[in-house]
Design brief:
The chain is mostly beta strands and about 150 residues long. The chain has one helix and nine strands, in the order αβββββββββ. Strands 1, 2, 3, 4, 5, 6, 7, 8 and 9 form a nine-stranded antiparallel beta sheet that branches.
Length: about 150
């Protein structure tokens, strides 16, 4: 049931993006290095050639998406961050965690809290659910451990 809802939501979001993208041009750049592949997509207004949005993706050497950053164009300061997503995977190569963090325009830094979506699987690696938590980014990383 949740999979159907998430798939439907994704389809609606893609449709909305396609409808609003009819007067834009998208340019792409792909850079391959030893640690993975970085892809950037820049969207420009078709009539004025003013940059609108840039989305950057970073994939590891196995082709798994690790990071996605979304930025918008500001005539006064260039590219301004909007949001970033960080993706982690389990030993079977399935998504295990997605971290979503928004940009704070006033502080010119990422916000202090992130949404973490943890994917939960059974012993057969079948998807069961997603758990959402909000974490405080002020906590120092060295205090967190992982088994």
């Amino acid at each position: 049931m949740k999979t159907t809802i998430l798939t439907s939501l994704f389809a609606v979001l893609v449709s909305i993006m396609n409808l609003s993208a009819k007067d834009v041009i998208t340019y792409s750049n792909v850079e391959n290095n030893g640690s993975g592949v970085k892809k950037e997509y820049v969207t420009l207004d078709d009539k004025t050639s003013i940059p609108l949005r840039k989305t950057s993706y970073f994939y590891d050497e196995k082709g798994r998406l690790l990071d996605r950053t979304i930025q918008k164009w500001n005539d006064k300061g260039g590219w301004v961050n909007l949001a970033k997503f960080e993706y982690r995977y389990n030993k079977a190569g399935r998504a295990s965690m997605i971290t979503f963090t928004q940009w704070n325009n006033k502080k010119k830094d990422w916000v202090n809290k992130s949404d973490i979506y943890t994917y939960i699987y059974n012993d057969s690696n079948e998807f069961l659910s997603i758990k959402r938590e909000i974490v405080d980014n002020k906590i120092k990383n060295e205090l967190l451990t992982q088994k």
